[in-house]
Design goal:
This protein is mainly α. The chain has one domain. It is 78% helix and 3% strand. It has five helices and two strands, in the order H-H-E-E-H-H-H. The longest helix is centred in the middle third of the chain and has 38 residues.
């Protein structure tokens, strides 16, 4: 998975506090293997699984924490695809952006405030990928040093 400086760099691009980002990223990496799991199911992202976990994160860390949560898992997904060899560099951002679009579509129209917030965050993270994608791929590439 991407190094913590990579997570912090892109969280700061979203206007998030780097100390908070470090704390939440460490928490995700420490806890997700046991209690939370990853909100990916196969090659798609499960909105029902995401909502269950996101609600816990939102209650514990607020809106900024939820933004870090979505960004963290997005960066992890990019890293997994990039390092797996299942997709070319060119396809990695396309695939992950498509997952974010899928997620936003699956959540849009949801009555809960959390659905609306997650839709906004997915759109925001997708925008970050559009603006900073090439640099992000360089930062996550095998052997990259940030």
């Amino acid at each position: 998975m991407p190094a913590m400086p990579v997570h912090r760099k892109y969280a700061q691009m979203l206007g998030l506090d780097s100390k908070m980002c470090s704390m939440i990223d460490s928490y995700i990496d420490r806890v997700k293997r046991h209690r939370f799991g990853n909100f990916t199911v196969g090659e798609t992202w499960s909105t029902s699984e995401l909502l269950n976990v996101a609600e816990l994160f939102y209650e514990r860390f607020g809106e900024s924490g939820l933004r870090v949560f979505v960004l963290h898992h997005t960066l992890d997904a990019i890293c997994r695809l990039l390092h797996s060899g299942r997709a070319s560099r060119e396809r990695v951002l396309v695939e992950v952006s498509a997952r974010l679009d899928e997620l936003a579509r699956g959540l849009s129209g949801g009555e809960r405030e959390l659905c609306k917030l997650l839709t906004e965050i997915a759109t925001e993270v997708r925008g970050l990928l559009e603006r900073e994608g090439e640099e992000l791929l360089e930062d996550i590439a095998p052997g990259a040093v940030l």
